[in-house]
Design brief:
heterotetramer, A mainly alpha, B mainly alpha, C mainly alpha, D mainly alpha, B: mainly alpha, 64% helix, C: 0% strand
Chain lengths: 94, 238, 127, 493
């Protein structure tokens, strides 16, 4: 039973994260959401008896893809609607 | 209006995809009865002929090794395309973008972790035929090690020449081992080495050799991707 | 009680994967920001990969690794999950990463030229 | 045995990995080595094709596992013909761009030639492979190099065109993987011949769904109507020779894939009329769009899309004559459209907009290039005595044989539209006054050589079509014979 609830929570989290990744205006948060999708995916792969795929997804999806997105956002704009272009990543972090 | 149309289109697509996959069913044998699926042959031959413990490795490197050659080429091409798309004349190359200024805890911590990460990556791809993992996973782990160093040290740099030499040599090893399979009247990528004993480190014939080459290649390529993108300091209005 | 619940769970895996894919498709078609489109493409890839791995799964199967423990206890190959979808997904993930990197490089260059990522403002070519 | 088909993949890959190292020794090697590789492959292809026409298809096994276990390559008369054509065009594109790229620096030149070689290798792989997932990998190789080549020039809107292409391409690969997995989940195999043998056991609904996914995915690459939004931009923004490579090599490979799925793998009775319908829609819409274009390369791109529609129509007849006509069209289209792209990019060489009106009066300054462009234009419309006449004639006779008079009439009407917009350009070249601000650019020796070779081939086929028809008949016979294909692949021990 507890197992069931756990898996259901994983599924709901994954759908929630993907919806969040699409509707969130702040691209940095959206990218973090894709990172969370990958993390949940790699747990699911492990549960589906695919350890090789889980390892790959954890390394590529969570680490590399996310960091490339973050670097791109750093070099371009952070907000989706770009209403004020001045507000860049760096000033927001500090 | 457009959104409604898109949602309608996606609803149709989703309905048919979902119907198809619910039809296929989850978790039970779904192949049509009476056929012998290839996976049974793969699993049997993995132990019997190739003496490899990890069936995914044997498929990726041997049975469907040609796919892997293509896949490595895709990554190689991605690095090439990245360099071509983001190419700037030498004097225009900007500084590296710095995501954050790292404190001394981060720098010394990553210095400490870096050898361990590289070691883990090497372990993963050397043991690719025995345990989960392999060339891709190990290569990616090594690339994350370099990523850590690049992020925490502002002036840490990887020699571009060294990266491309490693990449080329690993690629040549892969294709060359493949061509050596023609020895003794064999075919491309055919195993020509003794296969050893199951679950030993030295087993599986050419599979560990190819996976180690793939590991080096993927590591060098992904490091190259990160390095190229990181050196792309954006001007606000270009 | 438990078994019926788990029966619904069967459909939940496919449902989740397809839903994630559809959400990604929605993003690629509706969103205006180039980066958002690339994010949507990577969401599609996630859903697709989950779908493919799920096809290879058998209930109560073990991972396709002939470890010494497996050889001692089971010796039954049919207890293993299908390794082929896993091998294909391995390839697909790496290829997807390469495509994502290329797309992001193009995004950076478009930003360098136009100073914006909004599709409506970049439209020099007819879409 | 003179060589094996796997060398078509292995040698270019080996060279691609070697070239960055060789470039460190002597920078000129970066330009020379791809040409040497392509020359060697062309010789190999011609040798193998001669062998195959006499002795029957070669099936190459990889990694020592016979089909359906391992991956296999099939070099039949049909695939061999396409491979030879592609490598020949690739070699011409290389000769054309060898000096064209002189003014480019070392690093972009290295990347250009690598991407060009991989584009050709990927397309050859699509044609040769006998495994559906392997085909997916080669499609990805081809499309990634195409993305890079589209975005090669900095100044124009190339990155935008390329981004569009990336978007469509990613969606295409999603559908392709879905279709592959549906088939795998039912039949448990990925080998084409094995699937073709077992496909009748599959649930019809699943079969239709996977066929539609396949055609959607490949239609994006093959420029079928609702999915070809990327094509005109990519053709217009890519460097001139790359446009020729797209029209002559990439699209051919994608069309090959559609045909292989329709003819060999799926035995759906309604799929042939489906091909005719989508081909006809593509043809009509593309040709009417071409007449409205103001930029030369966009016009050529729409014309290329239209020709692909015509090829699909011809394949859709499902008869031996139809297949023969389609293959003849593919051959002619590859040669003629390359000539048009090569000469057209010199006619508008120095302009930034590449508008059609900038070709005005070019015949006085570039007589040979203008003449060759005119030959290409007349040939692609199908005027005698050029090569295009015979292919269009064979399409019409094939339509008449299948009692499809409506199709015949429509094809003729579309040809008139085609004639109008090509004549408009030729008219401007010969009878208009040169615009004041356009500066003609003399073609380099290599470019002129390539164009003359292509023009000579057009005239040769025009006056003496028997030079190729024998081979085309054998190629179409090898495509139609599904049972023989399955037998050849699966009888290996």
């Amino acid at each position: 039973m507890i197992y069931f609830i756990l898996i259901c929570i994983l599924f709901l989290l994954m759908i929630g994260a993907s919806v969040y990744a699409i509707i969130q205006k702040d691209l940095l948060y959206a990218v973090m959401a894709t990172g969370i999708i990958s993390l949940i995916l790699s747990i699911l792969y492990y549960l589906l008896q695919a350890p090789d795929v889980a390892l790959t997804e954890a390394a590529i999806g969570v680490a590399l893809t996310t960091i490339i997105f973050v670097i791109t956002i750093r070099n371009t704009v952070r907000m989706e609607d770009e209403s004020d272009k001045k507000e860049k990543f760096k000033s927001a972090v500090k | 209006m457009k959104k409604v149309l898109v949602i309608l289109l996606l609803a149709v697509l989703g309905y048919y995809t979902a119907a198809t996959f619910f039809d296929i069913g989850f978790g039970q044998p779904h192949f049509i009865k009476g056929l012998e699926p290839v996976k049974d042959i793969y699993l049997a031959q993995t132990v019997k002929t190739l003496k490899v413990s990890n069936a995914v490795t044997s498929i990726v490197v041997n049975f469907r090794g040609f796919d892997t050659l293509g896949e490595v080429t895709v990554l190689f091409l991605a690095v090439t395309v990245l360099g071509s798309v983001l190419y700037k004349k030498r004097h225009e190359v900007g500084e590296r973008s710095v995501l954050f200024s790292a404190s001394s805890i981060v720098t010394s911590g990553s210095k400490l972790l870096f050898p361990a990460i590289i070691l883990l990556g090497a372990y993963v791809f050397i043991h690719g035929h025995l345990s989960p993992g392999g060339g891709f996973q190990g290569g990616v782990i090594i690339a994350t090690g370099f990523l850590l160093m690049l992020l925490s040290y502002e002036n840490y740099s990887v020699s571009h020449t060294a990266l491309s030499v490693v990449e080329s040599l690993a690629g040549i090893t892969f294709a060359g081992v493949g061509l050596l399979g023609f020895l003794h009247g064999g075919t491309f990528l055919q195993n020509f080495l003794p296969t050893g004993v199951l679950n030993n480190l030295f087993s599986g014939g050419i599979i560990p050799i190819i996976y180690i080459a793939v590991g080096f290649k993927v590591g060098a390529e992904l490091t190259g991707v990160i390095y190229t993108v990181l050196h792309e300091k954006g001007q606000s209005n270009g | 009680m438990d078994s019926t619940l788990f029966h619904y769970l069967d459909y939940a895996v496919y449902g989740t994967a397809i839903l994630v894919m559809l959400i990604g498709f929605y993003g690629t078609m509706v969103k205006k920001s180039l980066l958002k489109i690339v994010i949507s493409l990577s969401v599609i890839d996630s859903g697709l990969n989950l779908l493919i791995v799920t096809i290879g799964y058998y209930k109560g199967g073990t991972a396709p690794i002939f470890s010494p423990g497996f050889l001692k206890n089971f010796k039954d190959v049919s207890k293993m999950v299908d390794p082929i979808p896993q091998a294909l997904v391995l390839t697909a993930i790496v290829i997807g990463f390469g495509v994502t990197a290329v797309a992001l490089a193009l995004v950076i260059r478009l930003y360098r030229h136009h100073g914006t990522l909004n599709i409506d403002e970049i439209k020099n070519l007819k879409w | 045995m003179v060589g094996t088909p796997v060398l078509f993949i292995a040698i270019p890959l080996l060279a691609a990995f070697l070239i960055p190292l060789l470039g460190m020794i002597w920078k000129e090697l970066v330009r020379i080595v791809p040409g040497l590789v392509l020359t060697y492959l062309l010789i190999l292809a011609i040798n193998l094709l001669n062998h195959v026409l006499v002795h029957g298809p070669i099936v190459e096994v990889i990694a020592g596992w016979v089909p359906p276990i391992g991956i296999n390559l099939v070099f039949s008369a049909f695939s061999g013909f396409l491979v030879t054509l592609m490598i020949f065009l690739g070699l011409l594109v290389w000769i054309y761009s060898y000096r064209f790229k002189r003014n480019v620096e070392y690093e972009p030149a290295l990347k250009y030639f690598l991407m060009l070689m991989m584009l050709i290798t990927g397309s050859v792989g699509i044609v040769l492979t006998g495994d559906i997932f392997n085909m997916f990998v080669f499609i990805e190789i081809t499309s990634i190099s195409a993305y890079g080549l589209t975005a090669f020039y900095k100044g124009r809107n190339s990155a935008e065109a390329s981004f569009k292409y990336v978007m469509m391409g990613s969606i295409a690969s999603t559908f392709l993987l879905l279709a592959i997995m549906i088939i795998y989940s039912q039949l448990g195999t990925l080998n084409m011949a094995d699937i073709a043998r077992k496909i009748h056991l599959m649930n019809p609904t699943l079969k239709i769904v996977s066929y539609i996914f396949f055609v959607t995915a490949l239609g994006i690459e093959a420029e079928i109507f609702p999915l070809n939004g990327w094509a005109p931009d990519a053709y217009a923004e890519a460097p001139g020779p790359v446009g020729a490579a797209f029209a002559g090599i990439v699209v051919k490979a994608a069309v090959y894939a559609i045909i292989r799925y329709t003819y060999t793998i799926f035995d759906l009775s309604s799929s042939f009329s489906f091909l005719i319908i989508i081909g006809m829609i593509t043809l009509i819409i593309a040709e009417t769009a071409a007449i409205r274009q103001e930029k030369l390369k966009r016009m050529l791109a729409y014309s290329s899309i239209g020709q692909m529609g015509l090829v699909l129509v011809a394949f859709g007849f499902g008869t031996k004559e139809g297949v023969f006509a389609a293959l003849f069209l593919m051959l002619n289209h590859a040669i003629i459209k390359s000539l048009l792209f090569f000469s057209g990019s010199y006619l508008v060489y120095n302009s930034t907009e590449k508008n059609i009106k900038e070709v005005n009066g070019m015949s006085k300054f570039l007589p040979v290039t203008s003449l060759l462009f005119a030959i290409g234009a007349f040939a692609i419309v199908g005027l005698p005595p050029f090569a295009g006449f015979w292919s269009k004639l064979s399409v019409l006779t094939a339509a008449a044989d299948s009692n499809m008079i409506l199709i015949m009439v429509l094809v003729l009407m579309v040809s008139v539209v085609e004639l109008v917009y090509y004549l408009r350009v030729v008219n401007r070249i010969y009878f208009f006054k040169k615009e004041a601000d356009t500066k003609p650019h003399k073609p380099t020796f290599n470019a002129l050589f390539v164009m003359l070779v292509l023009g000579a081939i057009i005239l040769l086929i025009g006056f003496y079509p028997d030079a190729v028809t024998g081979m085309l008949h054998k190629a179409s016979a090898s495509l139609m014979d599904k049972g023989q294909y399955i037998h050849n692949v699966l009888s290996l021990k």
